[in-house]
Structure formats: structure tokens, C-alpha cells
Amino acid sequence: MKEANTAGFAIIRIITGLFLVYHGLEIFESAKMQDYASWDSVKSMPFPVFFAYLGKGCELIGGILLAIGFLTRPAAIVITLTMLFICFKIGNGKFWYEDQYPFLFALLAMIYFFAGPGKWSIDNRKK
Prior knowledge:
Mean pLDDT: 89
Low-confidence stretches: none
Oligomer: single chain
């Protein structure tokens, strides 16, 4: 697949990354994190607090990497797996309605996995 190199593609990558960073910043709100860990779908997992922090950490770090276009494909894999886990394990898997946002984040991440970061990325800087 040819590397996408348009400004629009880069702007969407940056905005998507910044949205993920915004959601990932909740990792610094202990009350919010305890609330996530208390959800029934999370409580049923071993180490629910750890998984809540792991998910938010993946959103934060993956979002930063996506926004700056550094290690874009590995970041896209992490984001895709995290969002699909949220959609199908934490949520109800109703990606057409209730769990639409994490599913859409997963789809966007898959685009950047397959197409690469595009322009204005560290991955594509001139050597």
C-alpha cells in the first residue's frame, strides 16, 4: 500500500491521537480510576485496578505516539487491541450503538496501521 501523504490524513491522525490523550489523562484522576475498577465487567477480571490503569495508560501513550507520528504502526496495534477489548469485553460488543466510540477508535487506528503515519510525522522525517 502506498504511504498516505496528504495534510488531511495527517490532521485526522493528530486529532485522533489528541482525543486518545484526552481520555488517557484520566489515569491521573484516582477517583475516576477507582470508579472504572468498580465496574462489574472490570471487577470480574483479575487485578481490576491494574487493568483500569493499563487501559488508560495505553490510551495516553498510544495517543501521544499517534499524534506525533512516532512508532505509529506499533502504537496503532496497541490502540486497536485496547479499543476492541473495551468494546467487546468491558462493553457489550454493540459496536453499532452503545460501544460505538471505542470501535471507531479501533477502526481509525487500523487505518494508520495499514497506511502508515503520513506527513508531519516523526516516522517520516527526512534523514
